[in-house]
Amino acid sequence: MSSSPRRYHITTFGCQMNKADSERMAGILDNMGFKWVEDPLAADLVVYNTCTIRDNAEQKVYSYLGRQAKRKQEKPDLTLVVAGCVAQQEGEALMRRVPELDLVMGPQHANRLQDLLDDVFAGNQVVATEPIHIIEDITKPRRDSRVTAWVNVIYGCNERCSYCVVPNVRGIEQSRTPEAIRAEMEELGRQGYKEVTLLGQNIDAYGRDLPGTKEDGRHLYNFTDLLYFVHDVPGIERIRFATSHPRYFTERLIRACRDLPKVCEHFHIPFQSGDNDVLKAMSRGYTQEKYRRIIDKIRELMPDAAISADAIVGFPGETEEQFENTLKLVDDIGFDQLNTAAYSPRPGTPAALWENQLSEEVKSDRLQRLNHLVGVRAAERSQRYGGRIEEVLVEDLNPKDPTQVMGRTRSNRLTFFTGDLDRLKGQLVKVKITEVRAFSLTGEPLEVAQLVTA
Ligand code: SAH
Ligand code: SF4
Ligand code: F3S
């Protein structure tokens, strides 16, 4: 290694878990004396933290890697790392495909980055994909935001949805202890963070693997208990969580969200399909009627709560009628936001081997029709904010208009208003909503004078 500090870059693909993993890996690299650089082509150490949820996500990384592999021919001391879900899925095969790689490491190994790099700097090519018990990270993550933060509560997933690669690449469920989660949140509160998002692929599974929490087959400590345990952490004003699974979602959780003032009025509960036969083929373990009952209960107890979800169109064998059941569910419920995707066959998943795959034309046609409906219904849902006063936590500039700042309502609607970021960042501002769009709002701030002295 040269004597000037080596520079690193991390490019992150995929979901919130990967973002959280990247922040922890960046913390480890900072701790090792590396310096962050924005441009991946100027870095001495490059980490691609990858996603393989759909084929297009996986393919992206190969094109990025090609460029870095070429760069390494001129710069042999370049260290190339592939982390995350493609690394876990491909393992050794990735090393053979791109022999310039120094380190291929699965998501469970993120906290071990320093040990793995020590091995690399000793001259080895390293593949770390064996399942392990995830160790608590002792270095501080390098977080992208100073206002909002991710906190993992449970790693992995024990479900076996027939389309999904996550259990293969993230391993079995591993809950962190309530004490470790609360301690991380307390530290965030001391550092001035205002909002925490608790993360798990299936957050309702939280606790079921913790020792001593099961008695007579009943889980004695679950995610709702965790919310009660962490809800009053000083400094943290907002608590969010994702992702909820309809199979395990409880009324007690809704009541906790209603009763705990810091827990935000937003639920993210993917339904995937509005058709019972498709749900069965997906091995989701619930019916569309059960899903509707959950939403009814939320609307009864928290009428104004925002509801978002994920859905897949063009699952193998999905008929036009079955797809229309998804449209019907979306039309009936009226989501504030819906992440939609065309089904993508994934290696190592059951549905990828079925013969009743649909054509790309059918899938993209259905995706367009669903997206159109989502936009229409979300625009209607947005209407309720017009003229209202909403609390917005200011995070950043509006990337499209630097005279405006950007934040979110408690219900997670993106909101813009005119203001000075230096003064407002991290502040909770009361904003009168003057313009509504399908997925965002614009308003005028109230109470700014008080904020200055606050
Ligand atoms: N744990 C969450 C979702 C994790 S993956 C849950 O159970 O809901 C995020 C989203 O990607 C999923 O909700 C699903 O809508 C989508 N997805 C997963 N596998 C997919 C595939 N093979 N093709 C298309 N979309 C997929
Ligand atoms: Fe994938 Fe299903 Fe687990 Fe979600 S619950 S991560 S969709 S296997
Ligand atoms: Fe992608 Fe892995 Fe997340 S596959 S969606 S980064 S769990």
From TrEMBL:
Start and end residues of each MTTase N-terminal domain: 6-122
Domain (Radical SAM core) ranges: 143-384
Main location: cytoplasm
Residues that hold [4Fe-4S] cluster 2 according to the record: 157, 161, 164
Note on how the cofactor is bound: Binds 2 [4Fe-4S] clusters. One cluster is coordinated with 3 cysteines and an exchangeable S-adenosyl-L-methionine.
InterPro entries for this protein: Elp3/MiaA/NifB-like_rSAM, Methylthiotransferase, Methylthiotransferase_CS, Methylthiotransferase_N, Methylthiotransferase_N_sf, MiaB_methiolase, rSAM, rSAM_horseshoe
Name of the featured protein: tRNA-2-methylthio-N(6)-dimethylallyladenosine synthase
Segments forming domain TRAM: 383-447
Record function comment: Catalyzes the methylthiolation of N6-(dimethylallyl)adenosine (i(6)A), leading to the formation of 2-methylthio-N6-(dimethylallyl)adenosine (ms(2)i(6)A) at position 37 in tRNAs that read codons beginning with uridine.
EC number assigned by the record: 2.8.4.3
Binding, [4Fe-4S] cluster 1: 15, 51, 85
A single cellular component GO annotation: cytoplasm
Family recorded in the similarity comment: Belongs to the methylthiotransferase family. MiaB subfamily.
Gene3D superfamilies attached to this UniProt entry: Methylthiotransferase, N-terminal domain, tm_1862 like domain
UniProt enzyme class: transferase
HAMAP family for the chain: tRNA_metthiotr_MiaB
Entry cofactors: [4Fe-4S] cluster
Record-level Gene Ontology MF annotations: 4 iron, 4 sulfur cluster binding; metal ion binding; tRNA-2-methylthio-N(6)-dimethylallyladenosine(37) synthase activity
Pfam families per the UniProt record, alphabetical: Radical_SAM, TRAM, UPF0004
